[in-house]
Write a structure and sequence with these properties.
Length: 100
């Protein structure tokens, strides 16, 4: 569980990250420490990274993945139904998705 001060600090750092402002290595390490242990922080970090990239959603599959917060952490990774296996695409998703 996050303390109030930790949550506020994390959200402040993620706000700067999402706007493309300077984030130090120490702050990134701090965020990643919490992101590996807390699913909410991990989700906030992915959302901030997507906002920073400001990627335009190019197709319905990407829109679905973004809406479900299952988008790839890699900025240039998109699902191509002609070349990609959908099962492999969801391999990094939470366990409740993989079981389906």
């Amino acid at each position: 569980m996050l303390s109030t001060s930790s949550r506020i600090r994390i959200q402040e750092i993620l706000t700067r990250l999402s706007m493309g402002n300077k984030v130090t290595l120490e702050e990134r390490i701090y965020i990643n420490k919490y992101a590996t242990k807390n699913q909410n922080v991990s989700s906030w970090l992915r959302k901030a990274s997507r906002m920073q990239r400001n990627q335009a959603i190019s197709n319905p599959i990407d829109e679905l993945l973004d809406g479900l917060d299952l988008s790839s952490d890699e900025p240039h990774s998109t699902y191509n139904p002609d070349q990609d296996d959908l099962g492999e695409w969801f391999s990094g998703s939470p366990s409740w998705i993989r079981r389906s």
